[in-house]
Design a protein that fits this description.
Distance between the termini: 60 Å
Shape: flat
Mean pLDDT: 93
Oligomer: single chain
Structural class: mainly alpha
Strand content: under 5%
Order of helices and strands: HHHHHH
């Protein structure tokens, strides 16, 4: 007795669709929080005569304000991911010196370090690249980065409360 092979599963032809448009209030609140946080970084940096606004932090704020439920946007990931990536950049810098090869290595290794620490934050990989390319002073850079990330999280927290959203989903 032979048995017929099983029929192939029906192929689905449905295509994924773009996410729904955010409610105007949510979109306005996220935009206002993001602008406020980035202007705050510029203001504090101006007072300290040090730049606090670097491109990865703008991307971090976009996650905090625009996608506060994602693991990438949680305080553990924003603060921890940025600091771990900076440390990764400094470690690679110590081994390779400043340059593009070291920057590429640091950016890639930062992903692994953040993953191992359960603090994934994709914008932070760029922080490792910046460290390796620019060779900033170690302690001042880390202190300013910590301050900046804490300001982003605090602004995200305040903005979420004002906008009726929940942030963070978890702290640590």
């Amino acid at each position: 007795m032979t048995t017929a092979p099983p029929a192939p599963a029906a192929a689905t032809t449905a295509r994924p669709t773009a996410p729904a448009r955010p409610r105007p209030r949510v979109l306005l609140a996220a935009t206002a929080v993001s602008v406020t946080a980035l202007l705050l970084l510029v203001a504090v940096g101006t007072v300290l005569h040090e730049p606090l606004l670097i491109p990865p932090l703008a991307a971090s704020m976009a996650l905090v304000a625009g996608a506060p439920d994602l693991p990438l946007a949680q305080p553990r990931s924003v603060v921890g991911g940025q600091l771990l990536s900076a440390l990764t950049g400094f470690a690679v810098l110590a081994l390779t010196g400043p340059g593009l090869w070291g920057a590429a290595l640091a950016g890639g290794l930062a992903l692994g370090v953040m993953g191992a620490a359960r603090a994934p934050h994709s914008p932070a990989a760029a922080t490792a690249v910046i460290v390796t390319l620019q060779n900033p002073p170690f302690w001042p850079f880390l202190a300013l980065l910590a301050l900046a990330t804490l300001l982003l999280v605090a602004t995200g927290l305040a903005g979420a409360r004002l906008g009726g959203r929940r942030y963070p989903a978890y702290w640590f």
